[in-house]
């Protein structure tokens, strides 16, 4: 591919191909250029450096992930929506081309598109909780508890290099259901909007 036919979209697509093969941390300008059959210097027109390229991949991946989450939540409200969101966050396949811990993601938060997509992703849970939990203090605690639990499970699941494991997923589903039951018990008179 000659530099004149390069576009940012092609550069990002090539970086995704590198990530598929070598993992997120394997994305480099050199490997991406090799994937495109160009010199690494050709990429500087589109990205500043390797971290910028990784940030663009992360932003695109987060956008895809958030869009998929929204699609899966269509028609769901209350506890059913929270349960589905939690499962997608912990076990969704779309997170495979991204760092799997907040410390790694944090270094990309200066990228406006990464920050925007990250806010979109983690803004879903408070919105779902508003449809179900009328008490602000309960919602705040629920958001913290559920967000921390899903993030912890996602990190543990991926960093242990475990194949999809139905027992682990079933345990997670049951644990989330138990947390939802505990939160529902805190709702005055057991009222929900679901």
Structural write-up:
This protein is mainly alpha-helical. Helix content is 66%, strand content 0%. It is built from 8 helices and no strands. Helix 4 packs antiparallel against helix 6 and helix 4 packs parallel to helix 7. The longest helix has 24 residues. The C terminus is likely disordered.
Task: Briefly summarize what is shown.
It is built from eight helices and no strands. It has 194 residues and is an all-alpha fold.
SSE class? mainly alpha
Mean pLDDT, as a whole number?
Answer: 85
| Strand composition percent | under 5%
Major β-sheet, in short? none
Number of helices: 8
Share of residues in helices:
55-70%
What separation lies between the terminal Cα atoms? 54 Å
Form type: elongated
Number of strands: 0
Run of helices and strands: HHHHHHHH
Keywords:
194 residues, 8 helices, 66% helix
Outline the fold blueprint.
Layout: H1 8-22, H2 29-36, H3 50-73, H4 78-91, H5 102-106, H6 112-130, H7 136-159, H8 166-185
């Amino acid at each position: 591919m000659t530099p004149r036919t390069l576009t940012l979209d092609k550069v990002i697509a090539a970086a995704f191909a590198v990530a598929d093969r070598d993992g997120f941390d394997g994305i480099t300008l050199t490997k991406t250029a090799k994937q495109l059959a160009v010199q690494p210097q050709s990429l500087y027109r589109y990205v500043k450096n390797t971290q910028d390229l990784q940030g663009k991949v992360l932003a695109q991946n987060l956008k895809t992930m958030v869009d998929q989450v929204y699609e899966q939540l269509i028609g769901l409200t209350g506890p059913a929506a929270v349960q589905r969101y939690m499962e997608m966050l912990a076990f969704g396949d779309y997170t495979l081309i991204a760092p799997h811990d907040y410390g790694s993601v944090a270094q990309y938060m200066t990228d406006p598109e990464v920050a925007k997509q990250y806010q979109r992703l983690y803004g879903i849970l408070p919105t779902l909780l508003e449809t179900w939990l009328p008490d602000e203090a309960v919602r705040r605690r629920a958001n913290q508890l559920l967000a921390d639990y899903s993030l912890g499970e996602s990190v543990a699941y991926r960093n242990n290099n475990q194949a999809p494991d139905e027992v682990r997923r079933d345990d997670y589903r049951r644990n989330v259901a138990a947390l939802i039951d505990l939160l529902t018990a805190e709702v005055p008179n057991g009222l929900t909007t679901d």
